[in-house]
Write a structure and sequence with these properties.
alpha+beta; Herpes Virus-1; Double Stranded RNA Binding Domain; 7-stranded antiparallel beta sheet; 6-stranded antiparallel beta sheet; 9 helices; coiled coil; cytoplasm; zinc-finger; zinc ion binding; SPRY_dom
């Protein structure tokens, strides 16, 4: 079987010099050159010499008469055989490349009707006045349009992919935030559960003691009542016996007997003492401090602008503070720190358990101090950060954490905390610091609180900041 290359080479030999396509109904003119009948007919119709005058061959320019060309049947047979070989040797070629009406190969495209035409279709009256071009020439503008559409679609697809990537990243951030908040909720409720269990134990112990006191007083009451019943039973038996005797025996010592009975006073014991009854009645009031402590435990921590040093910038919601070397125009009131760059929280505490979260951002190696202070801590002049001065705090600075005791102690931690949870137990006297992310304990102060205490915060360093939350 002939190869595709050889068939293509043969097909090039039987092309029409005018339309550059395979010869259709080939005719030969006087000089021996062959052309498609339709192509040569249109060539002869071009305005020029009179019909009887000679025309020039499109190839060699030899003269020929318009009516002198002859059909070349042998060449037509060769062209037909070459076309057949081309269909057989070209992969994927089929009847789709030929005109259904004429069975001829399709070479042209009518742009008016968007129809693919063979040479015979082109000569038909329906397409004579239409714009007809060779397939490749007609396809080129459409290729350019398709290319532009592809570029636009690819850009749109890239934009959608960028949006997908951006939104996926956003979703991951939100999922991480939810996971963090979930851990926070778990920690909060575990801490709250421990607090409730401890308070429950205290209240149940008090109720248990009330039970014991009631049972003890009931035993004492039973003994006392038993003794009284026994005494009265003895007197009743004595009088019953006296009453049943004859007159002479009844009158013997009758006066002393009656005196003893008349002067006998009945003691009226109480099963429950008034003091114990009052304790039982007052017990529901024991839950009131618990409710108050619960409210305090869950209360938000807000910072007090009246105590803020002028170099501290306080946010509008009073939850975030940033250090600035520029002094703020703040009135010098008695509550404000004038030398130590510190600030206190609103309210303060005189009882109960409380906890709050401090998120620290030390941008350029600054420092942040967190803890609690007594209400009488020095606000003016130098502030010594140690328990003897009413300050129980830790300091985060330069990647280290120090407990500010009588002598500052650098703590050995697995990692410097960025979120510190501070817990205050006023009655027990504990101030506890925990890494809120890793739950690693940091330090615990033990104190004996006698005055109101406030959450305390200190900050130093350009760009350094902290925020508080419950």
């Amino acid at each position: 079987m002939a190869s595709a290359a050889s068939v293509t080479s043969l097909a090039d030999e039987v092309n029409c010099p005018i339309c550059q396509g395979t010869l259709r109904e080939p005719v030969t003119i006087d000089c021996g050159h062959n052309f498609c009948r339709g192509c040569l007919t249109r060539y002869c119709e071009v305005p020029g010499p009179e019909p009887e005058e000679a025309l020039a061959c499109p190839l060699c320019k030899e003269p020929f008469r318009a009516g002198s060309f002859r059909p070349n049947w042998q060449l037509a047979s060769v062209v037909e055989n070459i076309e057949r070989l081309r269909l057989v040797s070209t992969p994927g070629s089929d009847e789709a490349d030929t005109c259904r009406e004429h069975g001829e190969k399709i070479y042209f495209f009518c742009e008016d009707d968007e129809a693919q035409l063979c040479a015979l279709c082109r000569e038909a009256g329906d397409h004579r006045a239409h714009t007809v071009r060779l397939l490749d020439a007609a396809a080129e503008p459409y290729r350019e349009q398709i290319q532009k559409c592809l570029e636009c679609l690819r850009k749109e697809r890239e934009e959608i992919q960028r949006i997908q990537s951006r939104e996926n990243q956003r979703i991951q951030v939100l999922l991480c935030q939810v996971a963090t908040k979930r851990q926070k909720v778990i920690f909060e409720f575990a801490h709250l559960s421990q607090f409730l269990e401890e308070r429950q134990s205290v209240l149940l112990a008090q109720l248990e003691k009330l039970d014991g006191d009631i049972l003890k007083q009931r035993e004492e009451f039973d003994v006392l009542v038993g003794e009284e019943i026994c005494r009265f039973s003895s007197l009743i038996s004595e009088l019953e016996e006296k009453h049943a005797r004859p007159a002479r025996a009844l009158l013997t010592d009758i006066r002393s007997t009656l005196i003893r009975c008349e002067t006998r006073k009945c003691r009226k014991p109480e099963a429950v003492s008034p003091e114990l009854g009052q304790r039982i009645r007052d017990f529901p009031q024991q839950a009131v401090p618990l409710q108050r402590e619960m409210k305090m435990f869950l209360a938000d921590i807000c910072l007090d602008p009246q105590t803020s040093h002028p170099k501290l910038l306080l946010s509008e919601d009073q939850r975030r503070v940033q250090f600035s070397y520029k002094w703020q125009n703040s009135p010098d009131n008695p509550q404000r720190f004038d030398r130590a760059t510190c600030i206190l929280a609103h309210g303060g505490f005189t009882d109960g358990r409380h906890t709050w979260l401090v998120t620290v951002d030390l941008a350029h190696g600054g420092s942040c101090t967190v803890g609690v202070v007594s209400e009488d801590v020095s606000r003016k002049g130098e502030l010594r950060l140690r328990p003897e001065e009413g300050v129980w705090a830790v300091r985060l600075a330069w990647g280290f954490v120090s407990a500010l005791g009588s002598f500052p102690t650098r703590l050995a931690l697995r990692e410097p905390p960025r979120q510190v949870r501070v817990s205050l137990d006023y009655e027990v006297g504990w101030v506890t610091f925990v890494n809120a992310v890793s739950q690693e304990p940091i330090y615990t102060f033990t104190a004996s609180f006698t005055r109101k205490v406030f959450p305390f915060f200190g900050l130093w360093g350009r760009g350094s900041s902290f925020s508080v939350s419950s």
